[in-house]
Design a protein that fits this description.
By secondary structure, the chain is α/β, with parallel strands linked by helices. It is about 30% helix and about 15% strand. It has ten helices and eleven strands. A nine-stranded mixed beta sheet has the order 7-6-5-4-3-2-8-9-10. A two-stranded antiparallel sheet has the order 1-11.
């Protein structure tokens, strides 16, 4: 049974967010003042293959054609295009894959980033099952890696097996031990994201996996957070996919939507060099606006690109197509993000004219 407190907490958070946007969006739409984060975010999908098949992830619904590894030359092309377009920070976390499934090429790709004069830093997320001693030795040499985010699925072997639908718990635990032994040598921050049942927390659990993470949390460059509720991946993931586990989908697909989503301005370059507008939830590749082998990134993410402009124009008319229709991660450009409220220093937000200035 799902934890009642957690279920209520999830619903209150969702309703509070929608209430805030209902109050603020009409005002800024009337003033025609969108707030787009600038500079834009860039992600590269080095691999769309995962060795897990988590019940709350859209990976379980992707096709074999979508699962591929980006060749090194295409990776270099993608990085160069981002740098040429003014981007100096890159996220290598894919939509539905794991970076280390690129067993043969990931070292060369990371070394390319390290030597690239236009790239200041990068980050990525991994499930750590393939982060063996060889890969950890590589991490110790990296200077530009800013954040290593590690997703931990479940809090013990049983919950791990049920969530990931694999038998790789012991491998993950072994790699965590290796990570612990080397963590003082890293030049970057390590962020653990715990993805387990809703009634789980670090203090109340006492398993070998959690005790190991607790011991690492004492290190200055390590932090831990929890995923209290999960998204529906543009409507592709439902309670049926959860296999009866007490996991809560916030499933806010009927939530408030008015005006373009801010995620139209965060881009991902897929493993086949397609460029999509949402680097977060377009798991089925429905938002492709161009390909780097045919056009430059500058031309693809321009308001002059009719494919891109149509997405913005449609959402200005409150028409939400593709994954946007059922997505529960919508954030309107006509309001300051709810997670920025109360912060002393907020990010730089600009309007269309400034964002698309050439």
């Amino acid at each position: 049974m799902k934890n009642i407190y957690s279920l209520i907490r999830s619903k209150v958070r969702v309703k509070s967010k929608n209430f805030y946007y209902r109050l603020t969006v009409p005002f800024f739409r009337l003033l025609k003042r969108p707030m787009i984060e600038n500079p834009s975010g860039y992600s590269i999908e080095t691999s769309s293959i995962c060795n897990f098949n988590c019940v709350f992830c859209a990976y379980q619904h992707t096709t074999k054609k979508m699962r591929q590894i980006m060749p090194l030359n295409d990776f270099k092309l993608s990085v160069n295009e981002i740098a040429n377009n003014g981007g100096d920070t890159i996220t290598l976390t894919p939509l539905t894959g794991d970076i280390f499934t690129d067993r043969r090429g990931i070292h060369a790709k990371l070394n390319f980033l390290e030597k690239h004069e236009g790239i200041k830093n990068y980050s990525f997320t991994t499930n750590i099952s393939l982060l063996d001693e060889k890969n950890i030795s590589l991490l110790k040499k990296l200077k530009k890696l800013k954040n290593l985010k590690i997703s931990i699925y479940g809090h013990d072997e049983d919950s791990f097996n049920k969530i990931t639908q694999t038998k790789l718990y012991n491998k993950v635990y072994k790699n965590l031990l290796c990570l612990k032994n080397n963590i003082i040598f890293f030049n970057f921050k390590v962020q653990f994201g715990i993805r387990s049942y809703m009634d789980f927390n670090l203090n109340s659990s006492n398993t070998s996996m959690i005790n190991l993470i607790k011991s690492m949390k004492k290190t200055d460059n390590v932090s831990v957070d929890f995923h209290r509720h999960y998204t529906n991946w543009g409507g592709y993931v439902s309670d049926t996919d959860l296999k009866g586990l007490p996991i809560i989908l916030k499933d806010d697909k009927k939530g408030y939507k008015s005006g373009p989503c801010a995620r139209l301005f965060n881009y991902m370059i897929l493993s086949n060099c397609d460029v999509i507008l949402c680097a977060c939830r377009d798991a089925m590749r429905e938002m492709v606006v161009g390909n780097l082998k045919q056009n430059s990134l500058k031309d693809i993410i321009s308001i002059k690109n009719p494919k891109y402009k149509k997405w913005i124009d449609d959402q200005e008319k409150d028409k939400f197509n593709g994954p946007c229709n059922g997505c529960d991660m919508y954030r309107p450009v006509y309001a300051l993000p709810h997670y920025e409220l109360g912060k002393k220093q907020i990010r730089n937000y600009v309007g269309y004219k400034q964002f698309f200035s050439e």
